[in-house]
Design goal:
2 domains, Rossmann fold, 7-stranded antiparallel beta sheet, disordered N terminus, 18 strands, Hnrnp arginine n-methyltransferase1, 7 helices, 5-stranded parallel beta sheet, alpha+beta
């Protein structure tokens, strides 16, 4: 039913105001991930290995439904695709209909924290990976899945992830926050290859085992780096690797971008110097990030 009798005579702008139009960004973003074929092919390979004819699979954060549909095509008895965004779910439902999988894939609109299946799942897919596991909900979603969704001894994909950081020179992103003599708060930014120069080798920040409910809820580490090339230290770059299943691994080349963490002020460093910096954040809570001022030794 239209909001009022004259709705069909309103201008487009008036209709948007009446309907409180929201941008379709979540759905469009989810659809863009369909182009990450190397990532999807690795999940397809893993699902073909683990799915059995009696498997019940739950896909948390399904987005377009691509991984849920791959699980159904791999022969799962039933698949439940969960997502908090209704527009993305509608898109996924249409994909299931187009591919003749509507009878085997159930769609549930729910935040992952509120979802508990009637029967525990044999397999849980949870692909909310992001650079450093800072931005998306991979860690808290997997912890919930192991506690409330996955049966004991079940399989969760991916199984684990490791986060790394490296100090970099990256004037272009650091200077992004000064515009026409206006200064803006510095926040993490994604970057592409060639945007930054590494000043040392990367170091391990944290490891996350997604098969346990006791996944660390906070990272608080003092990182030590040995500078191998002098330059201007503008911040750290974070990235991850993930173990999907058996010998199948995921990395940044599978469609993710590294994350630049800017310092408040740049610091000149010389080859051979040692840099110590404290990094603290809660995975999945973007605003929790705290990057201390580096100590040069």
């Amino acid at each position: 039913m239209a909001p009022h009798a004259g709705y069909k005579y309103l201008s487009l702008w008036q209709r948007l105001v009446v309907m409180k139009y929201a941008t379709p960004f979540p759905m469009l973003h989810a659809a863009s991930l369909l182009s990450h074929r190397s990532r999807l092919s690795k999940f397809q390979c893993a699902l073909q290995k683990v799915v059995q004819p009696e498997s019940h699979v739950v896909d948390i954060g399904t987005g377009t439904g691509i991984l849920a549909l791959i699980a159904a095509r791999a022969g799962a008895k039933s698949v439940t695709a969960v997502d908090v965004n209704g527009k993305s779910l509608n898109y996924a439902r249409k994909a299931a209909q187009i591919n003749g999988l509507s009878q085997r894939v159930k769609f549930v609109e729910s935040h992952f924290e509120d979802y508990v299946p009637e029967e525990p799942a044999d397999i849980v897919i949870c692909e909310m990976l992001s650079s450093m596991l800072l931005v998306e909900q991979q860690v808290p979603a997997c912890a919930h899945a192991v506690k409330r969704v996955l049966k004991p001894g079940g399989i969760i994909l991916p199984a684990s992830a490791s986060v790394y950081a490296v100090p970099v020179e990256c004037a272009s992103l650091w200077e992004r926050f000064d515009v026409f003599e206006l200064e803006f708060p510095k926040v993490p930014q994604t970057l592409g290859r060639g945007d930054a120069k590494d000043l040392s080798d990367a170091t391990l920040v944290a490891k996350f085992n997604f098969n346990t409910p006791d996944i660390p809820t906070e990272v608080n580490e003092t990182l030590e780096f040995a500078i191998v090339e002098g330059g201007v230290l503008h911040g750290l770059v974070g990235f991850f690797t993930a173990h999907l299943y058996e010998d199948i691994t995921l990395g940044m080349d599978d469609g993710w971008r590294e994350l630049f963490l800017p310092l408040d002020e740049p610091i000149e460093v010389s080859k051979g110097a040692r840099v110590s910096v404290q990094l603290r954040f809660k995975p999945g809570e973007f605003d929790s990030l705290k990057l201390g001022r580096p100590i040069i030794g």
